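Figure 6 in text form: structure in, sequence out.
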C-alpha cells in the first residue's frame, strides 16, 4: 500500500496545473507536509488544492490510474521546484497584463502599448513597485514594451485578434476570463486589477493617436528620455517624477 499527498497549483505562468507529489509506503510524515505548507505560506497568499489518497504503488502513474482528475497535472517530487514556481506565479509578466487588457477591450497594437504604459505608471505611483518587470523604452511613437512590440507589430494598425479560451466560473451567473484571475491572484493583485481597470475606464475609448500625443507632452517621461534611434529605458524614477505631465 502506498500513501500519496498531492498539492496542486493552478499555474497561470506556464498555463497548466502543476503540483507537488509526496508518497510513502508508511504513513505520510506530518513533519514533511508541515514544512511544505510553511514554505508555501511564506510565498504569500496562495490557493492550493490538497489531495490525499492511497494506491498500490508509489508511482505517480498509479494516482492517475485511480483518478483521471490528475491526468493533466505536471508534478514534481522536488519541494524546491514547486516553491520556486509558486513564487514565480506571484509576479506578473507584461503578457499577463496584455491578456487582461485584450480580454476586456479590443485595441490596436499602438493603443495597447500606451495602455500598458499608463497601467504600469498608475501601479508604480500607487505602490512604488513594478507592475511587470519587462522594461518600458522610448520609441518614436511613445513608451513601448519592446518584447510586446516584437510579438505584436505584425498587427499593424489592425485591432488585435485575441480570444480568451479559458474562463473561471465563480457562481451560476458570474464568470471571469483566466487572464483576469491570473492578475487578481498575483501579489498585490487587487491593487493591480484596480489600476488596470481604472486606466481602461479613463483611456480605453481615447483614440490611439491622441494617446501618442498625450505621452509626447513636454516634460513627460518620454519627452525627457527620447533620442531618435536609441530606445532608452524610461526608468521608474523618471516615471515617478514626470508622469504628472502626461495624465
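Output sequence:
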Amino acid at each position: 500500500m502506498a500513501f500519496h499527498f498531492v498539492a496542486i497549483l493552478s499555474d497561470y505562468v506556464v498555463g497548466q496545473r502543476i503540483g507537488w507529489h509526496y508518497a510513502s509506503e508508511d504513513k505520510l510524515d506530518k513533519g514533511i507536509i508541515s514544512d511544505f505548507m510553511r514554505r508555501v505560506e511564506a510565498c504569500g497568499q496562495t490557493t492550493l488544492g490538497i489531495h490525499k489518497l492511497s494506491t498500490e504503488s508509489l508511482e505517480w502513474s498509479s494516482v492517475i490510474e485511480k483518478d483521471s482528475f490528475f491526468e493533466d497535472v505536471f508534478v514534481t517530487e522536488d519541494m524546491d521546484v514547486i516553491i520556486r514556481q509558486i513564487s514565480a506565479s506571484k509576479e506578473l509578466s507584461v503578457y499577463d497584463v496584455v491578456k487582461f487588457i485584450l480580454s476586456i477591450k479590443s485595441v490596436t497594437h499602438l493603443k495597447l502599448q500606451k495602455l500598458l504604459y499608463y497601467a504600469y505608471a498608475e501601479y508604480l505611483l500607487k505602490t512604488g513597485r513594478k507592475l511587470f518587470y519587462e522594461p518600458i523604452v522610448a520609441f518614436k511613437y511613445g513608451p513601448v514594451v519592446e518584447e510586446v512590440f516584437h510579438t505584436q507589430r505584425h498587427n499593424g494598425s489592425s485591432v488585435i485578434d485575441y480570444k480568451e479560451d479559458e474562463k473561471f466560473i465563480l457562481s451560476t451567473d458570474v464568470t471571469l476570463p483566466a487572464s483576469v484571475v491570473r492578475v487578481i491572484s498575483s501579489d498585490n493583485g487587487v491593487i493591480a486589477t484596480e489600476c488596470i481597470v481604472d486606466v481602461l475606464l479613463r483611456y480605453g475609448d481615447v483614440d490611439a493617436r491622441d494617446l501618442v500625443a498625450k505621452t509626447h507632452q513636454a516634460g513627460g517621461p518620454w519627452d525627457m528620455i527620447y533620442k531618435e534611434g536609441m530606445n532608452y529605458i524610461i526608468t521608474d524614477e523618471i516615471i515617478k517624477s514626470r508622469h504628472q505631465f502626461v495624465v
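Caption detail: The CA atoms of residues 8 and 49 lie 5 Å apart.
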